[in-house]
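Today's session is about reading a structure prediction critically. Students often jump straight to the picture, but the first step is always the sequence itself: look for stretches that repeat, for charged clusters, for runs of hydrophobic residues. Only then move on to the predicted structure, which in these notes is written as discrete structure tokens rather than atom positions. Here is the chain we will use throughout the hour.
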Amino acid sequence: MELALSIIQILADSPGHKPVGVTEIAGHLDRLGWALYQTAHRLPHATGVHAVAQPLIREAAARLGETVNLAVRYEVRMVIIESCGVASGLKVETPQGVPQPLHNSAAGKALIVDLDESALCQLCGLRLEATTDKTLASPKALAENLVACRRRGYTLDNEETDEGVHCVGVPIRDHRGQVVASLSVTGPSQRLAGKKLEEAATCIRTLALEISRAVGFSGATTG
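Below is the predicted structure for this chain, in token form.
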């Protein structure tokens, strides 16, 4: 599906609809991430959420001194559609427009935070890819983690995607209460921990509620 999207985009962009050969298509396949980024932006909920979230993400990144991300779910993956980091110092880069797993990042977990073990099995399969030794590699372990996340009010990535990186995330909900996007803060584990992590969680929980209410959500919290 991802490859097909990229090829369709290349063919559509061909000047005068002239024939495009296999070699030329192959040379353009590094545009896959951008094609998905554009597709994610065309999702019905993404445009409104992105418009509200964009200035708030910049403010939060400046306030926290860490990278703040906005992500949406695209089929069985997630795509970051906005990311704002600090201008200087040690920071964690997060790729925009590149499909990533849902199960091992705080942003991804926030997108599936409402799912139980059965739904996770259907969505992600019975075996989840492990990128570090802390990755939750089964739907059962992930479901138990999400229960704790719901109680806490935010999701966590404790070096589950990359060693030395922590991430905290929260869902954004629409007028039906459905999760349509997520906010996350990513930073080095030695810095984004303890009180700093709690501060980041509080900040993005407030922002997620503000964004959610702007698109029709009426609840007291999105977590």
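Discussion point for the tutorial: The chain has two domains: 2-39, 44-214.
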